[in-house]
């Protein structure tokens, strides 16, 4: 077995001996041969301590994508080896420009070409040494199921809003394809583990091919610095929820620290899915959107990718480009060129564009002979019957238009379906009056960006086109409102590509726009595109990833769950799970105990339909109340009548109703008010407003209490209910501004109550009463689950330094679930709360039994 001192993958790959006494530059992993991990680590290890120590000081980012930014060509000489070169068109390579010279970049992904197993070791060595690329070799049959199967037949159509309503539309869900997808993601994870230094490196995963990769990486390294960017659309929840593995993919993505989207729509759909399917809420803090997920904040990034300005400008300077522009100028002299550049797939809307061109020539015959639509149709990336149908329809439509409106020397549609060099495409951009992008759904689409920069031109191209270089440039765009770049192109004419008449009119309008306006639109677009290039996008994403990971070391982390349900719990070091053994031990050795218990969400699950306490809970409370060392209070937001009925058998139980407005020390005492309120006239103002929102929000209700009004929306649509709650809160605050009340929002509620009524008042009252009786509490337990309970936590934690507690008091402020709280402890759910209370009740029963035996 190879020694742990082999910490440099480059040394291993090259076969060199390790240099002892010198810090290895990379790989805190154990290796046997190049590309193989030694099985020293438990695959199911969830411990953060599994993170390997790092000795790396240079910042490094590992970029993981389905394909490496590498071109491979078989050598023509006798040995049949491979030649490799950078793929200058690859986004993964271009984004490197925004990361800075001091950032080392490692790429992990597949090669486009299939490599024979006998050559894989040599190829991997060459790519690692020369390009710092780690190839992922996937068996062909597995890759076919992964890429052409699950990715292209199921994820890609669904993310572009195509439901598998029949076997011919996207394909029905196939469990074996899903298993292949997971298997390939696991192989990618193994490759990342070979090269990562988890304490220092950042990992940036790209696109829908690798959506479950974050789970495998987070499982191995709990504190991995992990970002994910989705380059496709993310569909609305109504579409996404049809996916059988919807929860698995969402939870996998949430194992990232930062998730990036091109547009707010895509991010909004993702957040809506998390809300509706996982019950998660998000909030915006200082401009950053964050999801709270088991104590971790998963940040959301919204920024469209840009183009590589340097590459585009260098190709514009080529003599081949200049020559091609001159040839196209002569070919289309006297004609206005409309340009479309699209892949030949079902979502790019090529046939709709051609139909719009046909409609333009019908509705505006003056354009016949003057306007030409040049449609560049790139080969489809997928395969199947749908691609063949698109090709057939495109060819037949183009043929019909040319036969109807063409004449000698004039073809209204020029269809180019052969691959073009980049410089040729740029030449078409340069001579085109308007660019048309009518995709029915597209994640981003950079064609308009390339067109704008090309139309800016340079001196050589201006000379070729006989243009004044000092004159303002011009361009026009007609873009679909369903593509990712549309929101950033505010000067474009946006269209619904399904409305052929509207697209035809937009084409006519684009041609008729006055020259000064074309120049203003171009200037606006050029300013945006030139400053928001791919380098800016990459730099911005990395900065946000660094910010999102900045508090990793300030949190305790451990993993829970199995398989794709794995997630990491991250908590502040001062916020920890309440140990039943610890609190029972403290309970047994103390003599004056105060116990404050919330009810709904604490002792009774929020989701429970029947809220009446069960016999087990009543028995526990009675055991606690019988102990002469205890003062036990249930502090609830419910009304006093309900609480009286529910706890009628608990004679010694103190009850605080309506968040502390009413108080009863025990069953034999009368109810009293803790806060004096002059009148409740404000209800006549608040109730009509609440009724209005109840009528317009299906599933919402009003709860009328003696001291308060509560609007509940737990059973309303999550998004609409939350939106209405915010509106109602603002509305009530406005109309009640001069009333002595407070308006607060809570867990699925908006409540209006008199000022000064809080659960904290009950905590203060209890401590003061015990102090007056000479019973300084040496044990306090306070448990709650929502914002109203935070007032109690604040009072009892503040009392630790005051005279109302014993100097050696044991204080346990405990919230339900991991979330920001003034409490120092948490328990997961109501089941754990009841189990802990049962432990205290059992201790009291045993103490009573022992006392009884002694007295006999």
TrEMBL record:
The keyword Ion transport does not apply. Its EC number is 2.4.1.15. InterPro entries: Glyco_trans_20 (IPR001830), HAD-like_sf (IPR036412), HAD-SF_hydro_IIB (IPR006379), HAD_sf (IPR023214), Trehalose_PPase (IPR003337). It is an enzyme of class 2 (transferase). The keyword DNA damage does not apply. This is alpha,alpha-trehalose-phosphate synthase (UDP-forming). Keywords: Glycosyltransferase, Phosphoprotein, Transferase. One of its GO terms (molecular function) is alpha,alpha-trehalose-phosphate synthase (UDP-forming) activity. The gene is LOC104588804. It catalyses: D-glucose 6-phosphate + UDP-alpha-D-glucose = alpha,alpha-trehalose 6-phosphate + UDP + H(+). It holds the Pfam family Trehalose_PPase. In the N-terminal section; belongs to the glycosyltransferase 20 family. GO terms for biological process: trehalose biosynthetic process.
């Amino acid at each position: 077995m190879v020694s742990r001192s082999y910490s440099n993958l480059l040394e291993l790959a090259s076969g060199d001996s390790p240099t002892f006494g010198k810090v290895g530059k990379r790989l805190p992993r154990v290796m046997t041969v190049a590309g193989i991990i030694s099985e020293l680590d438990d695959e199911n290890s969830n411990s953060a301590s599994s993170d390997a120590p790092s000795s790396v000081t240079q910042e490094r980012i590992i970029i993981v994508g389905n394909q490496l930014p590498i071109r491979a060509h078989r050598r023509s000489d006798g040995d049949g080896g491979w030649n490799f070169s950078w793929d200058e068109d690859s986004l993964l390579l271009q984004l490197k420009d925004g990361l800075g010279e001091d950032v080392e970049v490692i790429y992990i992904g597949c090669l486009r070409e299939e490599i024979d197993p006998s050559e894989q070791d040599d190829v991997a060595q060459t790519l690692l040494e020369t390009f710092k690329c780690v190839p992922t070799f996937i068996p062909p049959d597995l890759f076919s199921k992964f890429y052409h199967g699950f990715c292209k037949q199921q994820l890609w159509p669904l993310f572009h809003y195509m439901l598998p309503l029949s076997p011919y539309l996207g394909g029905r869900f196939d469990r074996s394809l899903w298993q292949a997808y997971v298997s390939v993601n696991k192989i990618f994870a193994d490759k990342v583990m070979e090269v990562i230094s988890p304490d220092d490196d950042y990992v940036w995963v790209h696109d829908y091919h690798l959506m479950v990769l974050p789970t495998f990486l987070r499982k191995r390294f709990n504190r991995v610095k992990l970002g994910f960017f989705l380059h496709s659309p993310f569909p609305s929840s109504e579409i996404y929820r049809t996916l059988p593995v919807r929860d698995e993919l969402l939870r996998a993505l949430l194992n990232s620290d930062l998730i990036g989207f091109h547009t707010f729509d895509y991010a909004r759909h993702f957040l809506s899915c998390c809300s509706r399917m996982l019950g998660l809420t998000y909030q915006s803090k200082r401009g950053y959107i964050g999801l709270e997920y088991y104590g971790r904040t998963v940040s959301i990034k919204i920024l469209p990718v840009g183009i590589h300005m340097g590459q585009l400008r260098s190709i514009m300077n080529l003599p081949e480009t200049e020559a091609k522009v001159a040839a196209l100028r002569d070919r289309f002299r006297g004609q206005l060129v409309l340009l479309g550049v699209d892949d030949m797939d079902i979502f790019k809307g090529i046939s709709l564009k051609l139909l719009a061109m046909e409609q333009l020539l019908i509705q505006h015959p003056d354009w016949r002979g003057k306007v030409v639509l040049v449609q560049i149709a790139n080969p489809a990336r997928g395969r199947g019957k749908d691609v063949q149908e698109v090709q057939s329809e495109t060819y037949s439509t183009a043929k019909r238009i040319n036969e109807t409106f063409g004449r000698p020397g004039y073809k209204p549609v020029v269809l180019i379906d052969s691959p073009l060099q980049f410089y040729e495409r740029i030449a078409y951009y340069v001579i085109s009056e308007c660019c048309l992008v009518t995709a029915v759904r597209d994640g981003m689409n950079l064609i308009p960006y390339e067109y704008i920069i090309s139309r800016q031109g340079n001196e050589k191209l201006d000379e070729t086109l006989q243009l004044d270089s000092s004159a303002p440039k011009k361009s026009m765009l007609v873009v679909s409102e369903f593509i990712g770049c549309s929101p950033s192109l505010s000067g474009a004419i946006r269209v619904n590509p399904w409305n052929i008449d509207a697209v035809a009119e937009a084409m006519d309008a684009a041609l008729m726009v006055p020259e000064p306006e074309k120049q203003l639109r171009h200037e606006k677009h050029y300013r945006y595109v030139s400053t928001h290039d791919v380098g800016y996008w990459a730099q911005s994403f990395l900065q946000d990833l660094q910010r999102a990971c900045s508090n990793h070391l300030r949190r305790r982390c451990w993993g829970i769950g199995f398989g794709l349900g794995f997630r990491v719990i991250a908590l502040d070091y001062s916020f920890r799970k309440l140990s039943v053994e610890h609190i029972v031990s403290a309970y047994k050795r103390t003599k004056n105990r105060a116990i404050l218990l919330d009810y709904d969400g604490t002792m009774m699950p929020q989701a429970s339909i029947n809220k009446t306490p069960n016999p087990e809970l009543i028995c526990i409370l009675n055991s606690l109340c019988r102990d002469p060392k205890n003062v036990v209070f249930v502090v609830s937001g419910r009304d006093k009548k309900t609480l009286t009925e529910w706890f009628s058998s608990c004679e010694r139980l103190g009850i605080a109703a309506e968040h502390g407005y009413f108080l009863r020390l025990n069953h034999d005492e009368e109810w009293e008010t803790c806060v004096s309120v002059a009148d409740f006239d404000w209800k006549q103002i608040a109730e009509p407003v609440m009724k209005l929102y109840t009528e317009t929000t299906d599933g919402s209700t009003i709860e009328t209490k003696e001291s308060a009004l509560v609007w509940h929306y737990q059973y309303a649509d999550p998004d609409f209910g939350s939106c209405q709650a915010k509106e109602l809160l603002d509305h009530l605050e406005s109309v009640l501004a001069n009333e002595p009340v407070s308006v607060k929002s809570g867990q699925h509620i908006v409540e209006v109550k008199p000022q000064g009524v809080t659960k904290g008042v009950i905590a203060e009252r209890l401590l003061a009463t015990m102090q007056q009786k000479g019973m300084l509490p040496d044990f306090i337990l306070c448990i709650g689950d929502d914002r109203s309970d935070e007032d109690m936590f604040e009072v009892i934690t503040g009392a630790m330094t005051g005279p109302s507690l014993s100097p050696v008091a044991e204080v346990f402020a405990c919230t339900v679930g991991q979330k920001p709280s003034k409490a120092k402890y948490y328990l997961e759910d109501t089941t754990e709360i009841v189990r802990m209370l049962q432990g205290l009740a059992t201790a009291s029963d045993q103490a009573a039994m022992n006392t009884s035996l002694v007295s006999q």
